[in-house]
């Protein structure tokens, strides 16, 4: 601290912040004031000192130092590279307020881990170990090669080590295979990180959900991706696949279901199992399959046949023939027959009234109650003016494991290390297109 100007009892004081490479922050050295005090007798002199911050606090307490008026002879400078920071209590005077300078990143030569900037080898290794533990093992274990050795305190209620986070797999519809009335393709990205958790298997569950099924009692069917699907022990209705994403190191697993019921509401769940027996959080997809396939030309032919049987005097043989014909077609086909019948012959009585009149209430009820099985979504589509059928062929990667995992060793086998061979196969998918005019 250098005295710049003194007048009477007061001196103009200033000091300079000492920057010594401490990450760009200023460190203020302790400052003190010294003054000579003369006794009443004038014979003795004593040198007294006080910290400068104490001096300022005394001035503030005595209300001699304020924002608006500084006492004569004292100048306070709290500057940052020539600019007064907004945090400075003593610089908030008219015309003095300026924003602090904004730091500017000048250049990046290369990206390196933070711990490499430390020169001391021992400190560098300790810092590296701490960072690795914090990132991969939640700070509750040590990184050994590519896995986490958990601390004794890092165990869950089941007694399993849980220091390494277990990401949740996200089940989704495959963007390359559009669901049809019987075929659905699902996929998910492998969640095994580079260090820590080792995924042993993925467990899928699927079940049909409707008002007649107690979803809490009926759990559906569970399938092991590694033991059932990749080993080929599953049914021909379910196939496993694997492909790579945009990043080569990322694996995408997929499962295609080929024998689902049309116009059905299905719930699919997925969770991962690691080599220690832990389960990840569930991922769920609920969807309704497309409406059942309908041969619109055949439906129109049946509607004409039923009209001819109902027209005029209907014998017992003709009644039974009409009843058998209507009971043999599917519910969606029956809905389409009703649509064509009413479109062409409603002036002679609609389909429901004529069926009750010709077949009697009991047989008509047995036929008509089947229409209730058609969902409201499909009912609206089946009222379209024209329905056309088409067949698509989509490629699918079908995969099998080259090795058989021993029974009872599921938790200790890493799925990513399993040797898998894949071949491309074609899957035929029939669809209906609905429109108000032909050719749409």
Automatic annotation (TrEMBL):
InterPro entries: Annexin-like, ASTN1_2_Fn3, ASTN_2_hairpin, Astrotactin, FN3_dom, FN3_sf, Ig-like_fold
Cellular component annotations (GO), alphabetically ordered: endosome; membrane
Single Gene Ontology BP annotation: neuron cell-cell adhesion
Pfam families, per the entry: Annexin_2 (PF18411), ASTN1_2_fn3 (PF19743), ASTN_2_hairpin (PF18577)
Domain Astrotactin-2 C-terminal beta-hairpin positions: 387-433
Boundaries of every Annexin-like domain copy: 291-383
Record-level Gene Ontology MF annotations: inositol 1,3,4,5 tetrakisphosphate binding
Residue ranges occupied by any Astrotactin-1/2 Fn3 domain in the UniProt entry: 167-289
Top-rank taxon, per record: Eukaryota
UniProt name for this protein: Astrotactin 2
Species classification: Eukaryota, Metazoa, Chordata, Craniata, Vertebrata
């Amino acid at each position: 601290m250098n005295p710049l100007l003194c007048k009477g009892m007061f001196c103009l004081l200033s000091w300079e912040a000492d920057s010594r490479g401490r990450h760009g922050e200023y460190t203020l050295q302790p400052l003190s004031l010294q003054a000579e005090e003369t006794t009443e007798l004038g014979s003795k002199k004593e040198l007294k000192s006080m910290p400068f911050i104490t001096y300022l606090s005394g001035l503030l307490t005595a209300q001699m130092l304020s924002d608006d008026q500084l006492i004569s002879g004292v100048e306070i400078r709290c500057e940052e590279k020539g600019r007064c920071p907004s945090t400075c209590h003593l610089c908030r005077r008219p015309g003095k307020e300026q924003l602090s300078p904004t730091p500017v990143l000048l250049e990046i030569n290369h990206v390196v881990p933070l711990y490499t900037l430390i020169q001391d080898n021992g400190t560098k290794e300790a810092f590296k170990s701490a960072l690795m533990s914090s990132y991969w093992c939640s700070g509750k274990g040590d990184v050994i090669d590519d896995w986490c050795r958990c601390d004794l305190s890092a165990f869950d209620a089941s007694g399993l080590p849980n220091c390494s986070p277990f990401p949740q797999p996200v089940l989704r519809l495959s963007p390359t295979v559009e669901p049809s009335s019987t075929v659905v393709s699902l996929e998910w990205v492998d969640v095994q990180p580079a260090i820590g958790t080792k995924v042993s298997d993925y467990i899928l569950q699927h079940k049909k959900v409707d008002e007649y099924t107690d979803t809490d009692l009926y759990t559906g069917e569970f399938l092991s991706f590694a033991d059932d699907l990749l080993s080929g022990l599953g049914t021909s209705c379910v196939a496993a696949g694997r492909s790579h994403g945009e990043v080569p190191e990322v694996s995408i697993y997929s499962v295609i279901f080929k024998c689902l019921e049309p116009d059905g509401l299905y719930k699919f769940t997925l969770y991962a199992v690691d080599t220690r027996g832990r389960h990840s959080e569930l991922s769920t997809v609920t969807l309704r399959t497309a409406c059942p396939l309908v041969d619109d030309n055949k439906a129109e032919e049946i509607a004409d046949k039923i009209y001819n049987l109902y027209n005029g005097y209907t014998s017992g043989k003709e009644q039974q023939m009409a009843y058998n014909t209507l009971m043999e077609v599917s519910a969606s086909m029956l809905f389409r027959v009703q649509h064509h019948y009413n479109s062409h012959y409603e002036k002679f009585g609609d389909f429901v009234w004529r069926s009750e009149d010709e077949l009697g209430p009991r047989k008509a009820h047995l036929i008509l109650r089947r229409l209730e099985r058609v969902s409201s979504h499909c009912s609206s589509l089946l009222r379209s003016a024209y329905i056309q059928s088409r067949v698509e062929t989509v490629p699918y990667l079908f995969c099998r494991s080259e090795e058989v995992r021993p029974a009872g060793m599921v938790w200790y086998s890493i799925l990513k290390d399993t040797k898998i061979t894949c071949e491309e196969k074609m899957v035929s998918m029939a669809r209906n297109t609905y429109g108000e005019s032909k050719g749409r």
